[in-house]
Amino acid sequence: MRSFASDNNSGVHPSVMEAIVNANVDHAVGYGSDEWTKQAEDKIKEIFGDKGDAFLVFNGTGANTVALQAVTRSFNSIICAETAHIYVDECGSPARMTGAAVIPIRTNDGKLTVEQIKERLINFGVCHHSQPKVVYISQVSELGTVYTHEEIRRIADLLHSHNMYLHMDGARLANACAYLNCSMRSITVDMGVDILSFGGTKNGMMMGEAVVSFRPEITEHLQYYRKQSAQLASKMRYLSAQFIPYLENNLWLENAMKANISAAKLYNILKQYPEIKFTQKPETNQLFFTAPSEVALKLREKYYFYFWNEAEYEIRLVTSWDTTGEDIAGFEQDLKSIFDDFSD
């Protein structure tokens, strides 16, 4: 099956798979006291700098909940976009695990602005109200859009002036860097991000994420939150081994660039049809657009994808590191056939 439903559906890069197999030799000390975890942690420090302390976890929801526990207490609030993964797609896990209130803000493009955040920075010191403590942003956003360096720096500066933290969900961080032509360090810790959920599952890894802390006071208790959250792997080497090839020789960037380029090719195909209207600016490997209902439904018969807004037949297509030229050519031919029938 080939689809454009999600980069979660793609396979594992051969180099990553080979690393997992190579780690499956002899015995190794569990819970991260192994050579692969040490190498992975060192690689992450190479990427993000000496401030980056990494704690490997099983998945993205685990990374977000562990990270948010480390920067909040139960009387705090977490500010995020209304489309944020922690608000929409994690079954209330962040709220349950932290006890903190999650405060959503409506956006047009999935990105928060300083002006929107300022409106929520109220009632500090008032016991009747949850105390704002962290802002969660996704890079790339859930709508495929990318925060610029300046946008992140402005948010971080605002939060730090209120003794607050900035948490970045970097499930698709590599795609953002490919779009911005920048390093992962430059768009995170160098811009004031305090804690990062660093993902590779959508970009060629099999499983596993890393919580990367850039502040000593956050790092201090992360190991305990990870354990309490059931996110500490006993056979850690299989998670850790993946990060070594992923971060070597810019494999993370190569994979992300392939996905972004594939999305750009799909965009050029789709924009030829006046009936298709893009609802978000195409910047990375996600495309959002509306199509006539007959076209959308016929396309769904051939390709599995998600309707972002079923009432408006808004479609989300996502390309992956392993999207092929044949995938795109087949889509182009099928779309043409559907529109030919539609116009008859």
Overall description:
The chain has 344 residues and is of the alpha/beta class. It folds into two domains: 14-249, Aspartate Aminotransferase, domain 2 (3-Layer(aba) Sandwich); 251-335, Aspartate Aminotransferase, domain 1. The protein is built from 14 helices and eleven strands. It has helices at residues 14-23, 35-48, 60-71, 85-88, 93-98, 114-118, 149-160, 173-180, 216-219, 222-228, 237-247, 251-270, 293-302, 325-343, and strands at residues 53-57, 76-81, 101-105, 131-138, 165-170, 195-199, 209-213, 277-278, 286-290, 306-309, 314-318. A seven-stranded mixed sheet has the order 1-7-6-5-4-2-3, with helices on both faces. Strands 8-9-11-10 form a four-stranded antiparallel sheet, covered by helices on one side. Helix 8 links the parallel strand 5 and strand 6 (195-199). Helix 1 packs antiparallel against helix 11 and helix 2 packs parallel to helix 11. The protein is globular.
| Name given to the CATH homologous superfamily of the largest domain | Type I PLP-dependent aspartate aminotransferase-like (Major domain)
CATH class wording of the largest domain:
Alpha Beta
Rounded radius of gyration (Å): 21 Å
Query: How many strand units?
Result: 11
Q: How many domains would you count in the coordinates?
A: 2
The secondary-structure class comes to alpha/beta
Count of DSSP-assigned helices: 14
Main-sheet strand order equals 1-7-6-5-4-2-3
**Average residue-wise pLDDT:** 97
Helix content: 40-55%
Name the helix and strand elements from N-terminus to C-terminus, one letter apiece: HHEHEHHEHEHEHEEHHHHEEHEEH
Distance between the termini: 30 Å
The third-level CATH topology of the largest domain is Aspartate Aminotransferase, domain 2
* CATH architecture descriptor text of the largest domain: 3-Layer(aba) Sandwich
> How many strands, what sense, and barrel or not for the largest sheet?
7 strands, mixed
Measured by DSSP, the beta-strand proportion falls in 15-25%
- Overall, the morphology is globular
Low-pLDDT windows of residues: none
